Amino acid sequence: MKQERVPTALAALLAGMLGLSAAACAAAPVASSDAEPRIDDGLRIEEVASSRFEIERVRIRRSEGALSVSGDVSRVIRSRGFIPGRVEVRLLGPDGTVLAEDNATPMRRNRQARSAHFFVRLPVQAPAGSTVEIVHRRG
């Protein structure tokens, strides 16, 4: 009798493992490289990160004659440490011309931080249909 139960238990175990692996594949996150650019307050925001870093929590504020852009840069594989490189911010007009550009060096808030903050102020008023391009470059 025991020998009849062993194949049944083995089959049930294999079916359970197959079901778990199928569920894990179905729940896997989709790559964000195909994501559409965000549109915030009439400005299109394009984020271009390097292969090991990503740009997060981008905030854009308009003020009298200026545009303030801030956000965070973090590693794709979460770990602490220095975030090398610089962040380039460009304001492109509706026709694609560069209206303003500036660079910032990302700075960690403290030694234990897993991301680094950047802030850029562009001294220009953004016309409707403009694009803010944010690029992280290593080195």
Short synopsis of the structure:
This protein is an alpha+beta fold and 139 residues long.
Molecular structure report:
The protein has 139 residues and is of the alpha+beta class. The protein is built from one helix and nine strands. The chain has two domains: 1-30; 35-137, Sandwich (Immunoglobulin-like). A hairpin with a 2-residue loop joins strand 1 (38-40) and strand 2. It is elongated, with a radius of gyration of 23 Å. The model is unreliable at 25-34 (pLDDT under 50).
Set out the fold topology.
Blueprint: H1 2-26, E1 38-40, E2 43-48, E3 53-63, E4 66-75, E5 86-92, E6 98-104, E7 107-108, E8 115-122, E9 131-137
Parallel strand pairs: 2-9
Antiparallel strand pairs: 1-2, 3-4, 4-8, 5-6, 5-9, 7-8
Descriptive keywords:
139 residues; alpha+beta; Immunoglobulin-like; 2 domains; five-stranded mixed beta sheet; four-stranded antiparallel beta sheet; 1 helix; 9 strands; elongated; signal
Overall outline = elongated
The DSSP helix count reads 1
- Proportion of residues in helical segments: 10-25%
Poorly predicted spans:
25-34
Structural class label? alpha+beta
CATH architecture title of the largest domain: Sandwich
Q: What's the domain count?
A: 2
Provide the gyration radius in Å.
23 Å
Number of extended strands? 9
**CATH class descriptor name of the largest domain:** Mainly Beta
State the separation between the terminal residues, measured CA to CA.
69 Å
Element pattern in H and E: HEEEEEEEEE
Oligomerization: single chain
Biggest sheet: strands side by side, in what order?
1-2-9-5-6
User: Average pLDDT across residues?
Assistant: 78
The major pleated sheet works out as: 5 strands, mixed
CATH fold type of the largest domain: Immunoglobulin-like
Strand fraction: 35-45%
